[in-house]
Specification:
Length: about 375
């Protein structure tokens, strides 16, 4: 019958680890490199494992045959010697993780039930101590990683823009001009499309004239509207949450960038799918996507894209309409690259939004025309 043994760690070893992992505040530093940080983390994990093994009753029967025994040799603690891990499948722990074998000390310590309470108190104190050390090392290593990210600045942001949060943590202050133009834009967002209003009917007719200048304007309910990409014979049923501004965006696109408008309307570029996206309905979805992306329904934009857009709006009162044209052209380009079909429209729209968010936060973008995707537009 194997005798009960206790795994013990010498006081000198504990002091050595404490001095390495928790130096005085005046001399505390973070790891210089990931390799050093991982080395110190590995040391602490091994010691933390030792604390779990310091049970008053550790017998050979409590060890599973499948457990891996990992031992960091005592000469490697100071980091000056090569590190290696011994792995064995022995069914009992033949030696403590850090320290000498019990056979070297000339005997073993027999468990005494009368000392159980004292041992439990000691173990609780030491576990709190090691937990404190562990949390400090994690905090130091996290600070080292944060310094690397912050120190890399905009280069890191350009290489990995998807890893950055789109929320702006700094307060936003609007100039009187920015506030006025933002309020005007928001007032446009509040107007729903109403097919019974004459001015809204005239806007639909104006869009047809710009799209098909050599054709007669059809009735407001006609199958001919499907040629423009409306889903039914009555365009007014397709606006839904897009509102009147989505129709104004299409008209602005046709007026200011007629070449790109006609190319997208008639699908003349690239190899097209058998089931293409409907042009007019896609335009409504783009308007709605931009409203969400730029956080225009909030009292003050909180996203980075929204904050940057307010800056662009201060330089150009038509910044939203120009951005709409860029977004439509970018969506069509991504549609062709992905060789998408109708059922993949939402996925392409999402990737279009992601690309716009990346371009809007670039430091050298002062107006919509500075966006890289703006170069794809033809007037």
């Amino acid at each position: 019958m194997p005798s009960d043994r206790r795994v013990r760690v010498s006081e000198s070893t504990i002091s050595e680890l404490q001095s390495r992992l928790l130096p005085p505040l005046s001399t505390r530093r973070i790891p210089h490199s990931p390799r050093q940080g991982w080395r110190e983390l590995s040391l602490l994990v091994v010691f933390f494992r030792t604390e779990h093994l310091r049970n008053p009753r550790i017998t050979s029967t409590s060890m599973s045959m499948t457990n891996l025994r990992r031992r960091l040799h005592h000469g490697d603690v100071d980091g000056r010697k090569s590190e290696h891990v011994d792995i064995s499948n022995a069914d009992s722990l033949n030696e403590p993780l850090l320290g000498k074998s019990s056979s070297d000390s000339g005997g073993s310590e027999v468990y005494d039930p009368r000392r159980q309470d004292l041992w439990d108190d000691d173990r609780k104190k030491e576990q709190l101590h090691w937990s404190f050390l562990f949390s400090n090392l994690i905090a130091q290593w996290a600070q080292w990683l944060a310094n690397i990210i912050v120190g890399s600045g905009s280069l890191f942001g350009r290489l990995f823009p998807f890893s950055l949060d789109n929320q702006n943590s700094n307060p936003v202050y609007l100039s009187p001009l920015q506030e006025d133009r933002l309020n005007i834009l928001r007032s446009r967002l509040q107007i729903p499309f109403d097919g019974s209003r004459v001015e809204h009917q005239d806007a639909l007719r104006q869009l047809w004239r710009l799209a098909y200048p050599n054709r007669d304007i059809p009735p407001l309910k006609s199958e001919l509207w499907k040629e423009m990409g409306w889903q039914g014979n009555d365009p007014s049923t397709d606006f839904r949450g897009g509102g009147l501004i989505s129709l104004e965006n299409l008209i602005f696109f046709a007026r200011n960038y007629p070449s790109s408008f006609q190319a997208l309307l008639n699908k003349v570029q690239g190899q097209r799918a058998d089931w293409e996206y409907p042009f007019a309905v896609a335009g409504i979805n783009i308007s709605f996507m931009l409203i969400q992306m730029l956080d225009l329904q909030s009292s003050v934009p909180s996203s980075k894209s929204g904050v940057r857009f307010v800056e662009l709006l201060g330089r150009d009162e038509n910044a939203f309409d120009h951005l709409y044209c860029v977004a439509f052209r970018l969506l069509d380009a991504q549609w062709l690259v992905k060789r998408a079909s109708y059922m993949e429209f939402n996925e392409v729209l999402k990737s279009t939004r992601t690309q716009l968010e990346r371009e809007l936060v670039l430091e050298d973008v002062l107006e919509v025309k500075d966006l890289p995707s703006y170069t794809m537009l033809d007037k």
